[in-house]
Amino acid sequence: MSGPPRADNRPPYARIAGHYRELISSGELSPGDLLPSIKALATQWEVSTATADRAMRLLREEKLVRGIAGVGTEVMARPISLTSGAERHDRSSKTQSSWGVGEKSSGHTAGIVAAPENVAHVLGISPGDDVIRRSRVYRDGHGIVSHSTSWIPAEFAQAVPELARSERLKGGLSLDLIARATGRQVVRRVDEESARIATSQDLELLELEDGTVAAILVLTAQFLDADGEVLEYGVDLGAPGRTRRTTSEVRR
Q1: Phi first, then psi: what are they for 57, rounded to 5°?
Q2: Cα distance from N-terminal residue to C-terminal residue, the chain
Q3: Burial degree of 13 (CB within 10 A; 0-12, 13-18, 19+)
Q4: Structure-model confidence comparison of residues 135 and 26, the more confident one
Q5: Taking each helix axis from N to C terminus, what angle separates 49-61 and 38-45, rounded to the nearest 10 degrees?
Q6: Can you give the pTM of this predicted structure?
Q7: What angle, 0 to 180 degrees and rounded to 10, lies between the N-to-C axes of helices 49-61 and 12-26?
Q8: CA distances (Å), 35 to each of 20, 27, 125, in order?
Q9: How is 192-215 classified by DSSP, letter by letter?
Q10: Confidence of residue 148 (pLDDT cuts 50, 70, 90)
Q11: CA distances from 208 to 147, 172, 181, 246 (A)
Q12: Are 14 and 55 in contact (CB under 8 A)?
């Protein structure tokens, strides 16, 4: 049996912010809806206008609402999420699909190419050596989510020929196929995130107009086997406006 409800000991401004945060998260308040005025909030919650203003300021900092001069406080559209290649790998192991809710992939291309310098460094080969390059674009109802590239050691093309074919893989992700064919499985993963102004090549891959100035997230993941050898190096270019969000359990 659960005990009695815990008393809400948060400061008044946090309780007010939490109340509206829940209404926004649940969808009860939609983008474009207006929140009560600071004066109305202060009266409703029996707090000072300074406290009510602090609550709204907290929601603004969280990008949940925005203040519009002469109008009030408006609920903003929720951030559009960006999934990393590492999360797709985790999802595939549970659901047999790398797609998120409402996502699809297209533009699958593959082949054996000369390894760029940065990729060669990660895979422990020489620049220009053969490497398998697989790429695709993930989309959802908002447009492009990310352009995703997998760099795979060329040796796996013999054991898993379909890795070098320009078609969607069947039976799982590339790492699943490699594991079944060779017995080499991922035991460690190294994830990195960085941000940069999109290059001309980034713009082309994300289907943006040439000359566009936009900040993008670059998510990389190295998948290593028990011997520390890289089985795959994934690079995801997040479309502008996408937001990375992670949730962790906090144990006390």
Answers
A1: -65, -40
A2: 21
A3: buried
A4: 135
A5: 110
A6: 0.66
A7: 40
A8: 9, 14, 58
A9: EEEEEEPPHHHHHHTT--TT---E
A10: very high
A11: 12, 30, 38, 27
A12: yes
Residue 151, φ and ψ in degrees, nearest 5: -105, 120
The amino acid at 132: I
Give yes or no for a contact between 164 and 157, defined as CB atoms under 8 angstroms apart. yes
**SS3 letters across 112-155:** EEECCHHHHHHHCCCCCCEEEEEEEEEEECCEEEEEEEEEEECC
Least confident interval from 52-56, 82-86, 225-229:
82-86
133 is written with which tokens?
């390059």
Strand ranges of the sheet holding 72-75, from the earlier edge strand across to the other edge: 34-35, 72-75, 65-68
What are the residues whose beta carbons fall under 8 Å from the beta carbon of 38, sequence distance 6 or more? 49, 52, 53, 56
Are 52 and 42 a contacting pair, CB within 8 Å?
Answer: yes
Whose tokens are 């760029």? That residue is 116
Give the residue carrying structure tokens 């270019």.
237
